[in-house]
Write a structure and sequence with these properties.
Elements (H helix, E strand, L loop, with lengths): L7 H10 L11 E7 L7 E7 L3 E6 L6 H16 L16 E5 L6 H6 L4 H19 L18 H19 L6 H18 L5 E3 L8 E4 L2 E4 L6 E3 L2 H8 L8 H17 L9 H27 L8 H12 L6 H13 L1
Antiparallel strand pairs: 1-2, 2-3, 3-4, 5-8, 6-7
Helix pairs in contact: 4-7, 4-8, 5-6, 5-9, 6-9, 6-11, 7-9, 9-10
Length: 343
Protein backbone atom coordinates (compact mmCIF):
# COMPACT_ATOMS: atom_id res chain seq x y z
CA UNK A 1 0.00 0.00 0.00
CA UNK A 2 1.24 3.48 -0.86
CA UNK A 3 2.40 5.49 2.13
CA UNK A 4 0.91 8.97 1.86
CA UNK A 5 1.47 9.90 5.49
CA UNK A 6 3.16 13.17 6.35
CA UNK A 7 3.13 15.34 9.41
CA UNK A 8 1.14 18.43 8.45
CA UNK A 9 1.28 19.83 11.97
CA UNK A 10 5.08 19.54 12.00
CA UNK A 11 5.34 21.34 8.65
CA UNK A 12 3.05 24.15 9.77
CA UNK A 13 4.92 24.46 13.05
CA UNK A 14 8.21 24.66 11.16
CA UNK A 15 6.82 27.28 8.81
CA UNK A 16 5.58 29.41 11.67
CA UNK A 17 8.80 29.36 13.65
CA UNK A 18 11.18 29.59 10.71
CA UNK A 19 12.34 32.38 8.48
CA UNK A 20 9.40 31.56 6.22
CA UNK A 21 7.34 33.71 8.55
CA UNK A 22 8.60 36.69 6.57
CA UNK A 23 6.66 35.39 3.60
CA UNK A 24 3.82 33.52 5.25
CA UNK A 25 2.01 35.17 8.13
CA UNK A 26 0.63 32.77 10.71
CA UNK A 27 -2.81 34.29 10.51
CA UNK A 28 -2.84 33.87 6.70
CA UNK A 29 -1.92 30.20 6.63
CA UNK A 30 -4.93 28.13 5.57
CA UNK A 31 -3.91 24.63 4.47
CA UNK A 32 -1.04 22.31 3.58
CA UNK A 33 -1.63 19.68 0.87
CA UNK A 34 0.64 16.90 -0.38
CA UNK A 35 1.50 17.30 -4.09
CA UNK A 36 2.27 14.29 -6.24
CA UNK A 37 5.90 14.15 -7.39
CA UNK A 38 7.99 11.83 -9.52
CA UNK A 39 10.09 8.85 -8.43
CA UNK A 40 12.66 10.95 -6.55
CA UNK A 41 13.12 11.13 -2.79
CA UNK A 42 11.79 14.69 -2.62
CA UNK A 43 8.37 15.56 -1.24
CA UNK A 44 6.24 18.50 -2.33
CA UNK A 45 3.53 20.38 -0.49
CA UNK A 46 1.18 23.16 -1.56
CA UNK A 47 1.05 25.86 1.09
CA UNK A 48 -2.27 27.69 0.81
CA UNK A 49 -2.63 31.16 2.27
CA UNK A 50 -5.32 33.82 2.04
CA UNK A 51 -3.41 35.77 -0.60
CA UNK A 52 -1.53 33.17 -2.70
CA UNK A 53 -0.16 29.64 -2.83
CA UNK A 54 3.40 28.36 -2.58
CA UNK A 55 5.16 25.07 -3.19
CA UNK A 56 7.33 23.71 -0.40
CA UNK A 57 9.99 21.21 -1.47
CA UNK A 58 11.21 18.93 1.29
CA UNK A 59 14.53 17.37 0.26
CA UNK A 60 16.11 15.11 2.86
CA UNK A 61 18.70 13.64 0.49
CA UNK A 62 21.17 16.30 1.60
CA UNK A 63 21.67 17.87 4.97
CA UNK A 64 22.33 21.45 5.93
CA UNK A 65 21.96 24.87 4.31
CA UNK A 66 24.48 24.06 1.55
CA UNK A 67 21.73 22.05 -0.18
CA UNK A 68 19.47 25.11 -0.38
CA UNK A 69 22.36 27.31 -1.48
CA UNK A 70 23.07 24.87 -4.31
CA UNK A 71 19.40 24.84 -5.35
CA UNK A 72 19.31 28.62 -5.37
CA UNK A 73 22.53 28.89 -7.38
CA UNK A 74 21.32 26.47 -10.04
CA UNK A 75 18.05 28.37 -10.30
CA UNK A 76 19.94 31.63 -10.76
CA UNK A 77 22.17 30.15 -13.48
CA UNK A 78 19.22 28.78 -15.45
CA UNK A 79 17.21 31.98 -15.06
CA UNK A 80 20.20 34.11 -16.10
CA UNK A 81 20.49 32.03 -19.27
CA UNK A 82 16.88 32.61 -20.28
CA UNK A 83 15.28 29.40 -19.01
CA UNK A 84 11.90 29.74 -17.31
CA UNK A 85 12.12 28.31 -13.79
CA UNK A 86 9.99 28.84 -10.68
CA UNK A 87 10.85 31.81 -8.51
CA UNK A 88 12.59 31.07 -5.22
CA UNK A 89 11.61 33.35 -2.40
CA UNK A 90 14.53 35.23 -0.88
CA UNK A 91 14.49 33.94 2.69
CA UNK A 92 17.04 32.30 4.88
CA UNK A 93 15.72 28.84 4.12
CA UNK A 94 15.71 26.13 6.75
CA UNK A 95 17.83 23.05 5.95
CA UNK A 96 16.08 20.69 3.51
CA UNK A 97 13.16 23.11 2.90
CA UNK A 98 12.76 25.23 -0.21
CA UNK A 99 9.84 27.60 -0.74
CA UNK A 100 9.12 28.33 -4.38
CA UNK A 101 6.55 29.62 -6.83
CA UNK A 102 3.41 27.56 -7.33
CA UNK A 103 3.14 26.77 -11.04
CA UNK A 104 -0.14 24.89 -10.74
CA UNK A 105 -0.71 21.26 -11.67
CA UNK A 106 -0.49 21.12 -15.46
CA UNK A 107 2.59 19.14 -16.43
CA UNK A 108 3.74 18.63 -19.99
CA UNK A 109 2.19 15.17 -19.82
CA UNK A 110 -1.24 16.46 -18.78
CA UNK A 111 -1.01 19.14 -21.47
CA UNK A 112 -0.35 16.46 -24.09
CA UNK A 113 -3.41 14.55 -22.90
CA UNK A 114 -5.51 17.44 -24.20
CA UNK A 115 -3.94 17.32 -27.67
CA UNK A 116 -4.93 14.93 -30.44
CA UNK A 117 -2.92 15.74 -33.54
CA UNK A 118 0.62 14.70 -34.43
CA UNK A 119 1.36 18.31 -35.30
CA UNK A 120 0.32 19.59 -31.88
CA UNK A 121 2.58 17.04 -30.22
CA UNK A 122 5.48 17.91 -32.51
CA UNK A 123 5.21 21.64 -31.89
CA UNK A 124 5.01 21.20 -28.10
CA UNK A 125 8.06 18.95 -28.07
CA UNK A 126 9.90 21.28 -30.42
CA UNK A 127 9.44 24.01 -27.81
CA UNK A 128 10.82 21.63 -25.17
CA UNK A 129 13.89 20.96 -27.31
CA UNK A 130 14.40 24.70 -27.73
CA UNK A 131 14.56 24.94 -23.92
CA UNK A 132 16.86 21.92 -23.77
CA UNK A 133 19.27 23.47 -26.26
CA UNK A 134 19.36 26.63 -24.14
CA UNK A 135 20.45 24.50 -21.17
CA UNK A 136 23.04 22.68 -23.26
CA UNK A 137 24.41 25.99 -24.59
CA UNK A 138 25.32 27.21 -21.09
CA UNK A 139 29.08 27.68 -20.93
CA UNK A 140 30.46 25.65 -17.98
CA UNK A 141 33.65 27.71 -18.09
CA UNK A 142 31.67 30.60 -16.60
CA UNK A 143 30.79 28.48 -13.57
CA UNK A 144 34.01 26.60 -12.88
CA UNK A 145 33.69 27.18 -9.15
CA UNK A 146 30.27 25.54 -8.92
CA UNK A 147 29.78 21.93 -7.90
CA UNK A 148 27.64 21.08 -10.91
CA UNK A 149 30.50 21.69 -13.36
CA UNK A 150 32.67 19.25 -11.40
CA UNK A 151 30.17 16.39 -11.45
CA UNK A 152 30.16 14.15 -14.53
CA UNK A 153 28.19 11.33 -16.06
CA UNK A 154 31.37 9.31 -16.35
CA UNK A 155 31.39 5.52 -16.61
CA UNK A 156 31.57 5.23 -12.81
CA UNK A 157 28.36 7.23 -12.32
CA UNK A 158 26.59 5.43 -15.16
CA UNK A 159 27.54 2.05 -13.71
CA UNK A 160 26.31 3.12 -10.27
CA UNK A 161 22.90 3.58 -11.89
CA UNK A 162 23.13 0.20 -13.63
CA UNK A 163 24.06 -1.61 -10.41
CA UNK A 164 21.24 0.19 -8.59
CA UNK A 165 18.77 -1.35 -11.05
CA UNK A 166 20.34 -4.79 -10.85
CA UNK A 167 19.86 -4.65 -7.09
CA UNK A 168 16.39 -3.10 -6.82
CA UNK A 169 14.73 -4.34 -10.03
CA UNK A 170 16.27 -7.72 -10.87
CA UNK A 171 17.03 -8.91 -7.36
CA UNK A 172 14.44 -6.89 -5.47
CA UNK A 173 11.30 -6.47 -7.56
CA UNK A 174 11.66 -9.57 -9.76
CA UNK A 175 13.26 -11.68 -7.05
CA UNK A 176 15.73 -13.06 -9.61
CA UNK A 177 18.33 -15.51 -8.30
CA UNK A 178 21.23 -14.07 -10.25
CA UNK A 179 24.32 -16.20 -10.64
CA UNK A 180 27.72 -14.54 -10.45
CA UNK A 181 28.18 -15.33 -14.13
CA UNK A 182 24.97 -13.46 -14.97
CA UNK A 183 26.06 -10.45 -12.92
CA UNK A 184 29.45 -10.48 -14.63
CA UNK A 185 27.80 -10.55 -18.07
CA UNK A 186 25.40 -7.71 -17.23
CA UNK A 187 28.19 -5.56 -15.82
CA UNK A 188 30.55 -6.35 -18.68
CA UNK A 189 28.17 -5.20 -21.41
CA UNK A 190 26.75 -2.26 -19.50
CA UNK A 191 30.32 -1.17 -18.81
CA UNK A 192 30.98 -1.19 -22.57
CA UNK A 193 27.89 0.94 -23.07
CA UNK A 194 28.93 3.28 -20.24
CA UNK A 195 32.44 3.77 -21.56
CA UNK A 196 31.04 4.84 -24.94
CA UNK A 197 28.58 7.23 -23.28
CA UNK A 198 31.29 8.71 -21.05
CA UNK A 199 33.50 9.69 -23.98
CA UNK A 200 31.94 13.13 -24.47
CA UNK A 201 31.49 15.77 -25.69
CA UNK A 202 29.89 16.90 -22.43
CA UNK A 203 27.41 19.71 -21.82
CA UNK A 204 25.48 20.89 -18.78
CA UNK A 205 22.59 18.40 -18.46
CA UNK A 206 19.35 18.78 -16.54
CA UNK A 207 19.51 15.05 -15.72
CA UNK A 208 15.74 14.56 -15.30
CA UNK A 209 14.27 16.36 -18.29
CA UNK A 210 10.96 14.55 -18.85
CA UNK A 211 7.23 15.19 -19.19
CA UNK A 212 6.57 15.39 -15.43
CA UNK A 213 9.34 17.94 -14.83
CA UNK A 214 8.12 20.48 -17.38
CA UNK A 215 5.18 22.59 -16.23
CA UNK A 216 2.75 24.60 -18.34
CA UNK A 217 1.90 27.79 -16.50
CA UNK A 218 0.17 30.80 -18.05
CA UNK A 219 0.85 29.38 -21.55
CA UNK A 220 4.59 29.09 -20.92
CA UNK A 221 6.79 26.05 -20.29
CA UNK A 222 8.74 26.02 -17.03
CA UNK A 223 11.52 23.64 -16.00
CA UNK A 224 11.49 22.18 -12.48
CA UNK A 225 13.58 19.64 -10.50
CA UNK A 226 16.80 21.07 -11.87
CA UNK A 227 18.94 20.77 -8.75
CA UNK A 228 20.72 17.57 -9.86
CA UNK A 229 22.33 19.08 -12.96
CA UNK A 230 25.78 17.82 -13.91
CA UNK A 231 28.03 17.50 -16.95
CA UNK A 232 27.13 14.75 -19.38
CA UNK A 233 26.50 13.68 -22.93
CA UNK A 234 23.72 15.83 -24.46
CA UNK A 235 21.96 12.62 -25.46
CA UNK A 236 21.13 12.00 -21.78
CA UNK A 237 18.54 14.79 -21.69
CA UNK A 238 17.42 14.17 -25.27
CA UNK A 239 16.62 10.56 -24.44
CA UNK A 240 14.96 11.62 -21.17
CA UNK A 241 12.39 13.70 -23.04
CA UNK A 242 11.91 11.72 -26.26
CA UNK A 243 12.09 8.19 -24.78
CA UNK A 244 10.19 9.14 -21.63
CA UNK A 245 8.69 6.21 -19.70
CA UNK A 246 5.80 8.45 -18.66
CA UNK A 247 4.62 9.33 -22.17
CA UNK A 248 5.15 7.65 -25.54
CA UNK A 249 5.92 10.18 -28.25
CA UNK A 250 4.71 9.16 -31.70
CA UNK A 251 7.63 7.49 -33.50
CA UNK A 252 7.36 9.80 -36.54
CA UNK A 253 7.69 12.78 -34.23
CA UNK A 254 10.65 11.23 -32.39
CA UNK A 255 12.51 10.95 -35.69
CA UNK A 256 11.66 14.52 -36.69
CA UNK A 257 12.59 15.88 -33.27
CA UNK A 258 15.90 14.02 -33.20
CA UNK A 259 16.75 15.56 -36.56
CA UNK A 260 15.72 19.00 -35.31
CA UNK A 261 18.01 18.68 -32.30
CA UNK A 262 20.82 17.17 -34.36
CA UNK A 263 20.74 19.98 -36.95
CA UNK A 264 20.32 22.82 -34.48
CA UNK A 265 22.68 21.70 -31.74
CA UNK A 266 25.07 18.90 -32.72
CA UNK A 267 25.81 20.18 -36.23
CA UNK A 268 25.43 23.86 -35.35
CA UNK A 269 28.04 23.52 -32.59
CA UNK A 270 30.30 21.27 -34.66
CA UNK A 271 30.39 18.65 -31.93
CA UNK A 272 32.47 15.58 -32.46
CA UNK A 273 30.79 12.22 -32.68
CA UNK A 274 28.22 13.31 -35.26
CA UNK A 275 28.59 10.01 -37.12
CA UNK A 276 27.77 8.11 -33.91
CA UNK A 277 24.69 10.16 -33.04
CA UNK A 278 22.16 7.36 -33.57
CA UNK A 279 24.24 4.76 -31.77
CA UNK A 280 24.86 7.07 -28.83
CA UNK A 281 21.15 7.86 -28.72
CA UNK A 282 20.21 4.16 -28.65
CA UNK A 283 22.88 3.23 -26.12
CA UNK A 284 21.78 6.10 -23.92
CA UNK A 285 18.16 4.96 -24.21
CA UNK A 286 19.21 1.53 -22.94
CA UNK A 287 21.17 2.92 -19.99
CA UNK A 288 18.77 5.74 -19.09
CA UNK A 289 15.65 3.57 -19.26
CA UNK A 290 17.30 0.80 -17.24
CA UNK A 291 18.16 3.40 -14.60
CA UNK A 292 14.55 4.67 -14.53
CA UNK A 293 13.24 1.12 -14.03
CA UNK A 294 15.54 0.80 -11.04
CA UNK A 295 14.04 3.96 -9.55
CA UNK A 296 10.47 2.74 -10.12
CA UNK A 297 11.32 -0.56 -8.42
CA UNK A 298 13.05 1.15 -5.50
CA UNK A 299 10.07 3.41 -4.81
CA UNK A 300 7.80 0.37 -4.65
CA UNK A 301 10.08 -2.00 -2.74
CA UNK A 302 11.38 0.51 -0.18
CA UNK A 303 8.49 2.97 0.09
CA UNK A 304 5.45 0.89 -0.78
CA UNK A 305 4.46 3.28 -3.59
CA UNK A 306 3.06 1.38 -6.61
CA UNK A 307 2.35 4.37 -8.87
CA UNK A 308 5.38 3.83 -11.10
CA UNK A 309 5.10 0.07 -11.63
CA UNK A 310 2.93 0.58 -14.72
CA UNK A 311 5.89 2.12 -16.55
CA UNK A 312 8.25 -0.83 -16.11
CA UNK A 313 6.81 -2.99 -18.91
CA UNK A 314 6.91 -0.15 -21.40
CA UNK A 315 10.50 0.63 -20.43
CA UNK A 316 11.68 -2.96 -20.70
CA UNK A 317 10.16 -3.39 -24.16
CA UNK A 318 11.89 -0.17 -25.21
CA UNK A 319 15.22 -1.57 -23.98
CA UNK A 320 14.66 -4.83 -25.85
CA UNK A 321 13.91 -2.99 -29.09
CA UNK A 322 17.12 -0.94 -28.81
CA UNK A 323 19.26 -3.94 -27.85
CA UNK A 324 17.93 -5.87 -30.85
CA UNK A 325 19.49 -3.32 -33.19
CA UNK A 326 23.04 -4.22 -32.14
CA UNK A 327 24.37 -7.78 -32.62
CA UNK A 328 27.22 -6.98 -30.22
CA UNK A 329 24.63 -6.62 -27.44
CA UNK A 330 22.77 -9.87 -28.14
CA UNK A 331 24.27 -11.65 -25.12
CA UNK A 332 23.22 -8.77 -22.85
CA UNK A 333 19.67 -8.98 -24.22
CA UNK A 334 19.44 -12.74 -23.67
CA UNK A 335 20.75 -12.56 -20.10
CA UNK A 336 18.60 -9.60 -19.13
CA UNK A 337 15.33 -10.81 -20.58
CA UNK A 338 15.57 -14.41 -19.46
CA UNK A 339 14.98 -13.06 -15.94
CA UNK A 340 12.42 -10.44 -16.96
CA UNK A 341 10.24 -12.88 -18.91
CA UNK A 342 10.96 -15.74 -16.51
CA UNK A 343 9.65 -13.98 -13.40
Amino acid sequence: MQNNSFDVDAIIKNLKRSSFSGKIKEQDLKKVEKVSGDASSRQYFRIKTKSKNYILCLDKSYEGPSNNNHFRKVQEVLKHNGISVPELYKTNLDPNMILEQDLGDQTLRSLLAEKNSDQDEFLIYKSCLDILMMIHQIDPQKYQGEAFTKLFFDHIKLMEEVNFTIEHFLRGFLGAKLTQRDIDILQKYFLQISHLLANGPFVLTHRDFHSKNIMCYERELFVIDFQDIRMGLPHYDLVSILEDCYYQVRRENVNKLKKYYFDNFIVANNLKGKSDFEKLYDYMTIQRTFKAIGSFSFVFMKKGDPRFLKYIGFGMEKIKEKLSRYPELEILKKNLFKYYYGN
